[in-house]
Amino acid sequence: MDIKQTTASLPQFPKSLWRDTVDLPSFSPLTEDITTDVAVVGGGITGITAAYLLVNAGYQVVLLEAGELLAGTTGFTSAKLTTQHGLIYHDLLQHFGEEQARMYHRSNHEAMEWVIRTAEELKLSCGIKREPAYLYADAGDDKTLKQLEKEYEAYQQLGLAGEWQDNISIPLMAGGAIKVADQARFHPLQYLKGLLQAFLDKGGVVYEHTMIGEKVQQKDLLTLFTEQDELKIHCRHAVSASHFPFYDGGALYFSRLHAERSYCLAIEPETPFEGGMYLSAGQTTRSLRAVEWEGRELIIVGGDNHKTGQGICTFGHYENLEKFAGELLGIKSIPYRWSTQDLITLDRVPYIGKISGEEEIYIATGFRKWGMTNGTLAAQMICDQIQGKEHSCSELYDPSRLKANPGIKNFIVQNLNVAKELVSGKLEPADKKKQELQPDEGAVVKHDGKRVGAYRDPEGALHLVDRTCTHMGCECEWNDAERSWDCPCHGSRYSYSGEVLEGPATVPLTKLL
């Protein structure tokens, strides 16, 4: 009997396979006031796709990114193109009804097919490969198996393509699975690099390192302002594709979204992988798919979700995935590890569309880890809406909706959790003394009688920040796996020296040293 190697050395620092295997162009920051037809804020899959579609529709388009293009969630995805979004269709039937449940499936299916067709039309070499997707329940997990059976009943009621299987081909002990054929996997950044170049070829303009603030003026044109120096962007329409909406408009999105982090390893397996894309249906999420890398096949192993800022010992999540992968396939090496952040709405359906009846600002957020199709769909919908076209899915994804069930219940639970974190963060003791910190270690320490955030870098220099989140005042927690300060209330994230990594915050933490 073969003994599998169950452990390998985890990389010291996180690095995305996608970002490491593509050369992306760089762009200068905005330095003067500009006027355009459409300002698209956010350089991920939604922003780049929307910019591409709008410039092809004849609009003058400017794409604005707070950091670097594709350095957010899109650059750290597992990159599955599929309509199988976990246990979703039974819930949609219960809370949205048959018509809108079918619409959710159809709109995501059309988005998936559009990506594949566009890659072919533009002759993009992005590794698209058709594969079946499997949603499975672990053997012995009777509760999840019953949920999976209800999900399959929803597939049948809605007329969705799906096949029940008692077993799956990889050596997982599964109690059952739903197989959906003809889904796909790809290299998302190679695809989006091609889409970006097509946008530039049509006269599109890009600015990086240009953070847009929440202030908006509306007269004859919309006026957006940069956060740092209040440069003005005058436009007829604005698209918020910035993960967390840059503009709230009184909609209180911070109270209607919650942020979750999840983790990925790219492993070189000891035993062959038989293909397919896999997702567990239980609470402890596990995801599998293959990817080609330097003439070899790696397996992307993902999962271990938790609310941002509420995952104690974040490095342990990578270790959990390492243990799972080692026992399942064996591990020769682990070239990459990375994590990402996703936003989830109260009813688990994205918010896509116009923010209000008067303002020409459109948002796209809350993709619940399925941004490859939902992000593409969002770009298509917003492009149609800007052109004044009716879109059949507008009601389903309407940002102003509030479903009484489960929306109100989730709203209460979510915001009680925020209140708990707000209070507990103010009362927790310091973890260590400053002088006890080792190189490449962070913790909460006492400084001038106050609890502050501290990190000692590999060269031994100490970095101190006020860890009070600049969004709404919660106390950020140290993320040891990513060397960041993460807010447990609304998901803002900061570098160890205080710079904003993820919104809704736009203002850095105060540096103390």
Automatic annotation (TrEMBL):
<dbReference type="GO" id="GO:0004497">
    <property type="term" value="F:monooxygenase activity"/>
</dbReference>
<dbReference type="InterPro" id="IPR006076">
    <property type="entry name" value="FAD-dep_OxRdtase"/>
</dbReference>
<dbReference type="GO" id="GO:0005737">
    <property type="term" value="C:cytoplasm"/>
</dbReference>
<dbReference type="GO" id="GO:0016020">
    <property type="term" value="C:membrane"/>
</dbReference>
<dbReference type="InterPro" id="IPR036922">
    <property type="entry name" value="Rieske_2Fe-2S_sf"/>
</dbReference>
<dbReference type="Pfam" id="PF00355">
    <property type="entry name" value="Rieske"/>
</dbReference>
<dbReference type="Pfam" id="PF01266">
    <property type="entry name" value="DAO"/>
</dbReference>
<keyword id="KW-1015">Disulfide bond</keyword>
<keyword id="KW-0479">Metal-binding</keyword>
<protein>
    <submittedName>
        <fullName>FAD-dependent oxidoreductase</fullName>
    </submittedName>
</protein>
<dbReference type="InterPro" id="IPR017941">
    <property type="entry name" value="Rieske_2Fe-2S"/>
</dbReference>
<keyword id="KW-0411">Iron-sulfur</keyword>
<feature type="domain" description="Rieske">
    <location>
        <begin position="429"/>
        <end position="513"/>
    </location>
</feature>
<dbReference type="InterPro" id="IPR038010">
    <property type="entry name" value="YhfW_C"/>
</dbReference>
<dbReference type="GO" id="GO:0016705">
    <property type="term" value="F:oxidoreductase activity, acting on paired donors, with incorporation or reduction of molecular oxygen"/>
</dbReference>
<dbReference type="InterPro" id="IPR036188">
    <property type="entry name" value="FAD/NAD-bd_sf"/>
</dbReference>
<keyword id="KW-0408">Iron</keyword>
<dbReference type="InterPro" id="IPR005805">
    <property type="entry name" value="Rieske_Fe-S_prot_C"/>
</dbReference>
<dbReference type="GO" id="GO:0046872">
    <property type="term" value="F:metal ion binding"/>
</dbReference>
<keyword id="KW-0001">2Fe-2S</keyword>
<dbReference type="GO" id="GO:0051537">
    <property type="term" value="F:2 iron, 2 sulfur cluster binding"/>
</dbReference>
